[in-house]
Amino acid sequence: MTSVNQLDDLDARILLALDENPDATVLHLAQTLGVARNTVHARLRRMTEGGALGSFSKRVAPAALGYPLVAFVWIAISQASDSAAMASLGEIPEIVEMHATTGDADLLAKVVARDPQHLHSLTSRMLRIEGVERTSTALSLVEAMPHRVRGLLEGVAGR
Amino acid sequence: MTSVNQLDDLDARILLALDENPDATVLHLAQTLGVARNTVHARLRRMTEGGALGSFSKRVAPAALGYPLVAFVWIAISQASDSAAMASLGEIPEIVEMHATTGDADLLAKVVARDPQHLHSLTSRMLRIEGVERTSTALSLVEAMPHRVRGLLEGVAGR
DNA sequence: CTTGAATCGGGCAGGATGCTCAACGGCGCG
DNA sequence: CGCGCCGTTGAGCATCCTGCCCGATTCAAG
């Protein structure tokens, strides 16, 4: 997420209103927020095109697709095979997020799986990728706080 | 995300179509997918109410709200203060996700921040919470793979 | 001051909505 | 097997909304 357009308070208020009611019409948002219809429309387009508003599928819960198990996998990469390993890891759809991080390993992957055996087969698959030297897995026992950005939105909206 | 309704292939195809075009009307989805309008409507309502389709704000990129920095913070909790510490951590809006995990620490938090100084003040704030014994931070250098579930959706949709 | 971008209010031609209804088909159960 | 339940279907109603366009105004930057 490099160089995303920064949202102002009206942008944030629009998104908050949509968080409350995702089916709200542009016209209703405009009336509720006290701005012109065109303005809401232009703002939404800008947020979508500018990357601030991501893809619809970000709303989908992997557990509903049959992947109730979440794990965090630290992956150590050998430097020579960096990009090829990344591409191979990208072919595993169960890796739903990945960051190159500071710390002991090179990558931290958020992985979903059907069950523990499936998770094990996924980490084995990762280890077979050329360039992947080591993995270390921490299992999520409870999703203590599901992904949320509402508090951040409220801050920008001035609440 | 406990006991989420499982999605079938039509659910997944609806979500894929919406991923392609989030503004698609129910009528257009119905025509495209070859089902009745009411069916799409009923499916969407069920996915929303059943938890499979999460809140709109999950689409919002924290970087666009002024939080470009991502970090993963391992938090060790003393057992006596478990729920009070959790509640206090929940009051920090920059903690955008948190899991109770296996491994060395008790919690893994995904934290966003304005800059390194801000991150430091956040971890200091966490350490001041009664029950939080220790934190260990890994900084995300690059979001190598932004959050994605499209591949999982395609699997369920039968592609 | 000039310029460009954003907002505003209005409008056009066409389209969509939430909800209701009755009928039908498939499935599970006794 | 018969029955009940649930989901899907197609149709319709009254109401509302859309993408896009336009000219005028406002605001910020040079």
TrEMBL record, chains A, B:
Under the heading Pfam families, the entry gives: AsnC_trans_reg, HTH_AsnC-type
Q: Domain named HTH asnC-type: which ranges? A: 7-68
Entry keyword set: DNA-binding, Transcription, Transcription regulation
Gene3D superfamilies, sorted: 3.30.70.920, Winged helix-like DNA-binding domain superfamily/Winged helix DNA-binding domain
The protein's matches in InterPro entries, at most eight in alphabetical order, are given as:
AsnC-type_HTH_dom, Dimeric_a/b-barrel, Tscrpt_reg_AsnC-like, Tscrpt_reg_AsnC/Lrp_C, WH-like_DNA-bd_sf, WH_DNA-bd_sf
Recorded superkingdom: Bacteria
Q: What is this protein called?
A: Lrp/AsnC family transcriptional regulator
Species assigned in the record:
Herbiconiux gentiana
